[in-house]
């Protein structure tokens, strides 16, 4: 069965509604800096005209962006764009808007820092807590990556599945909730560096092999070290 493209795997299922269209375009405009932090969005009448939607649809879209931390409605002032530190950077749509706007080395570096803070521990927890089905899923996907038979998009999609499966097997709900961040890291590298797939296959194959082995053998310290090696060799700072 054909895998979804990396971008589609990160997006999930986007509804083709007017509400979704307004959320996506305004969200991307905010993340790209078209509407800068600290500034005001155009008025409701102008936005409703721009998107050819009712005030009700527009208000619901703005509520969605407010829930993501991007904007803040202010009575008699308007809707202001919030500082980037207030945005929900674990939200899959926010991460996707960064990628669609042109992900840069600085953001990839920040994602790498947070991954180093928790992914090795996630691998150790997976080695300790994973069910037999989890172990099989993780090792099967790593072996698929190591086979050398996948297209570049399928390599990225398979590695997304590897890291998501490890997060799930950790049995830690906070790590599990970071799945979108892990997927965004892979999609971001794929977009940022055209040679990413070739490089990760060359640099990180051994580390991924060690990761599969350590999880299969339930060796938590070895899994921790193997994931550190994966991150340092496969995802070096841009």
Automatic annotation (TrEMBL):
SMART domains linked: FCD, HTH_GNTR
Q: Name one GO molecular function term.
A: DNA binding
User: Keywords in UniProt for this one?
Assistant: DNA-binding, Transcription, Transcription regulation
Q: Does the keyword DNA-binding apply?
A: yes
Q: Which InterPro entries match?
A: GntR_C, TF_FadR/GntR_C, Tscrpt_reg_HTH_GntR, WH-like_DNA-bd_sf, WH_DNA-bd_sf
Q: Which branch of life, at top level?
A: Bacteria
Pfam families in alphabetical order: FCD, GntR
Output this protein's name. Answer: GntR family transcriptional regulator
List the source organism: Ectorhizobium quercum
């Amino acid at each position: 069965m054909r895998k979804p493209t990396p971008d589609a795997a990160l997006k999930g299922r986007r509804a083709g509604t007017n509400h979704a269209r307004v959320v996506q375009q305004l969200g991307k405009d905010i993340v790209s800096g078209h509407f800068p932090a600290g500034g005001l969005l155009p008025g409701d009448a102008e936005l409703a005209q721009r998107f050819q939607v009712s005030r009700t649809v527009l208000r619901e879209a703005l509520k969605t962006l407010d829930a993501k931390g991007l904007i803040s409605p202010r009575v008699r002032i308007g809707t202001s764009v919030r500082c980037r530190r207030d945005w929900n950077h674990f939200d899959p749509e926010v991460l996707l808007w960064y990628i669609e706007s042109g992900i840069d080395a600085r953001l990839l570096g920040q994602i790498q820092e947070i991954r180093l803070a928790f992914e090795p521990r996630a691998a150790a927890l997976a080695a300790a807590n994973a069910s037999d089905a989890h172990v099989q899923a993780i090792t099967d996907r790593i072996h698929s990556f190591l086979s050398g038979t996948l297209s570049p998009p399928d390599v990225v999609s398979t590695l997304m599945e590897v890291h998501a499966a490890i997060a799930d097997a950790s049995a830690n709900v906070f790590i599990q909730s970071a799945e979108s961040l892990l997927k965004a890291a892979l999609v971001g590298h794929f977009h940022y560096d055209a040679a990413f797939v070739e490089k990760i296959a060359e640099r990180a194959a051994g580390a991924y092999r060690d990761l599969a082995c350590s999880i299969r053998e339930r060796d938590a310290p070895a899994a921790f070290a193997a994931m550190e090696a994966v991150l340092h060799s496969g995802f070096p700072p841009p």
